[in-house]
UniProtKB/TrEMBL annotation:
This is Ribonuclease HII. InterPro entries: RNase_HII (IPR022898), RNase_HII/HIII (IPR001352), RNase_HII/HIII_dom (IPR024567), RNaseH-like_sf (IPR012337), RNaseH_sf (IPR036397). It holds the Pfam family RNase_HII. Its EC number is 3.1.26.4. Keywords: Cytoplasm, Endonuclease, Hydrolase, Manganese, Metal-binding, Nuclease. Manganese or magnesium. Binds 1 divalent metal ion per monomer in the absence of substrate. May bind a second metal ion after substrate binding. Belongs to the RNase HII family. It is an enzyme of class 3 (hydrolase). It catalyses: Endonucleolytic cleavage to 5'-phosphomonoester. Its main location: cytoplasm. It comes from Winogradskyella thalassocola. Coiled coil: none annotated.
Length: 200
């Protein structure tokens, strides 16, 4: 199904999405994008459906042709303090606040959001596979976060963040078990399955 350009009747509609919500390490990263109504891009889709090569290809296309875009990381210590849902919403708010053009309407991937200033919004489940601006935001959030994870991989290569990007893979959990945790790990997350077992 082709992605739609518009949800609302407003010309300046911004799509927002985040990446890294389910990760054990690294930030949660959100992007916000306003696309022109004439925007066309056959390659664009939900970032989870795209290859890494195509996401990298799309990033400059989105940045060059969007009316405006913003990207915001919220880091581990803040995630641990305010919880991942609030951190995800804060990241989206941060990305929207960076837009050089104020949006008239905001569409959000998922089902949870807090109003941003007095701009009307709608939450759309699987919005990143329905609307171009959310798909574009998902691509930017994912590529910016992946770049960050590849950088911190150099500091702690044993966790292989270059590959797993901080997600809870078997390999990542095995490395946590062997080496312990780093300053980039989210302390409030269940980092190992056995954290659930109580010694009774």
């Amino acid at each position: 199904m082709a992605l739609k350009i518009q949800f609302s009747t407003f010309n300046l509609e911004c799509g927002t999405d985040e990446a890294g919500r389910g990760c054990l390490a690294g930030p949660v990263t959100a992007a916000a994008v306003i696309l022109p109504l004439s925007y066309k891009n056959k390659l664009l889709n939900d970032s989870k459906q795209l290859s890494k090569k195509n996401r990298i290809l799309l990033k400059p296309m989105i940045e060059d042709l969007s009316i405006s875009y913003g990207v915001q990381h919220i880091f581990e210590s803040e995630i641990d303090t305010i919880n991942i849902l609030n951190a995800s919403i804060k990241a989206m708010h941060g990305a929207i606040s960076q837009l050089k053009t104020i949006p008239e309407y905001i569409i959000v991937d998922g089902n949870r959001f807090k109003p941003f200033e007095d701009i009307p919004h709608s939450t759309i489940v699987k919005g990143d596979s329905k609307f171009m601006s959310i798909a574009a935001a998902s691509v930017l959030a994912k590529t910016y976060r992946d770049n960050y994870m590849e950088k911190i991989h150099e500091e702690f290569p044993m966790y292989n963040w270059k590959q797993n990007k901080g997600y809870p893979t078997k390999e990542h959990r095995a490395a946590i078990k062997k080496y312990g945790i780093t300053k980039y790990h989210r302390k409030s997350f269940r980092l190992l399955p056995e954290q659930y077992k109580l010694d009774i």
